[in-house]
Amino acid sequence: MNAREEIGVSRSALARVTGVGVSTISGWERGENEPTVDRLWMVWERVARELAPNAEEVQIREETDRFMALVIPIPAQERDLADWRGIRGMLQPTLAGDLEISTMSLSNLERGVSPLQDSLVPRLAESLRLTEAEVRAAYSRARDRPLLI
To answer: To which H or E segment does residue 60 belong?
Structure first.
């Protein structure tokens, strides 16, 4: 049983609420294609709003983050910056724009290729909704991962 079926929502109802086509949703469920993280986050956020119309914004965000952590099943203590970006439903260009850096610069940070500038840490923490210590730890995991030979 998939997540849509578990919450008792039909494909057509999900399509109507999210603006995503029924055939697209069907393709996701059959594994023929995959949604981008930003699309998946948007779909789940809208579902969460429909299921709990009186919920506070922070509750919707937390529920959506919880769902995304199930989709990207990497324990928090093992996540790097790219993992956190995915859980927050952001594509590289979106986060790079928030940080006012190039997508290539963000890619290099996420891979641990470029040094993490102290001035960027608070902005990353705010955008990814992490503490500065969590940002530094996530960056270190990417930087310190074993070399592939």
So the answer is: helix 57-71
